[in-house]
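User: Okay, second chain of the day. Same drill as before: sequence in, structure tokens out.
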Amino acid sequence: MERSAELWCHNGREQMLYDVSVGGIVALAEPGDCRCDYLCRRSEYQMPLALLSPPRCWRPVIGTAGSGRGAFASRDGVAVRYGLLGIPVADRCRRMSQPVWSIGAATLWERLCRNHFFQEPCLMATEQGSPRCQLLPLPDQQVAFQVDGQECLRWHFGGQYPRPFFYPLNGPSGQSLTRMGHPGAPNHDHHRSIWFAHAKVLGINFWGDTTEARIRQHRWLVYQDGQQEAALASELGWYDGHQPEPLLKQVLVAALQPDQEGQYQLELQSTWTPTAETLELQQTNFGMLAVRVAKNLSAYFGGGTLTNSEAQVGEPAIFGQPARWVDYSGPVTTAAGQVQEGITYLDHPENPGYPAHWHVREDGWMGASLCFQGPLVLRRDAPLRLRYLLDVHSGPVVAARAERLLQGFTERLPWKVFQGGPRHHQFTLRRVES
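Assistant: Same drill. Structure tokens below.
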């Protein structure tokens, strides 16, 4: 059902707000407060919100949340908290008129979260219970990413390893599509599923296990659950093994976003800041993000296929060539029989050297090579940010799907970690303009 309502936009960027006519509420402030000058003057929301009459069984209750206003709803006398702190307005707002559609209450709030109307996205109560996507901290310095109670991914950051990594990366069938180490070469045990590293940081090898160089997680910053995604933010240091201070400081954001029929995307964003004024990443094929696929996906050890965005197939055709994405897909054995699954590794247009030159191997390895063509100098006053997307999919790769995901990834705002936030939170995580 289409309805007309008065909406506002921020910095000239139009946004859609959805009305709930059954089982929900859209009033986030009293009608008298919904004015552009009021909102800009009070700096309470990033974007003023349209006000439509909620169902009679709901009534708005204006309360407080931390240092800012909160939006509450009351149904049959039971308070349910839906909205949280707003984001300060950075510029003038302008009003516009836009149609509004009716959708479910949970969908409304998740779309508000997904579009980051609130400073604390996805940390909210719903009548449906706990969020669909959750992070579960585990013993031995591990964190599980779960969707509908099933583990999809796990982050390992224990000091017994030279650097942190993700394992397993489970496919739609529940079988891991990555592995620990090389299927036939023990000198490649540093290939731990999915990991960040570089072979020549000022000439120091952070890639293999044969040096004293180490990458250590200092602390986690944010564990964020939600209906649409679960996101982790952590702070890491790159140590040469001799000096007490790290050469590089890394802030990692990993967000898992479920798709249809057990498929999902893993969005990885890392920002590196050198502690010195400058630091050189020297020319090498190795770094920054690597993926060691399961043996059965390997073109040599299994029945897998390497493909890229340029319709090239196999290691000889793909190695060293620029491409927007590369895919490794192959057979997966389940109790019900054999299925096809795979991982599409997508580069982001904002990354240096896009489209990346790829280091791939028929034995089951792929990585976007940041310094394939030459060195890269990092500056303390201009941190390096890299963004990648791993699509975990059923069946062989479908180029149209990969391009559609790439387009959406290109349009998506980057993450940023902010100090402070609502009660009981030291840090908050949200998407912002670059």
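The domain at 133-431 is CATH 2.70.98 (Beta-galactosidase; Chain A, domain 5).

User: Thanks, on to the next one.
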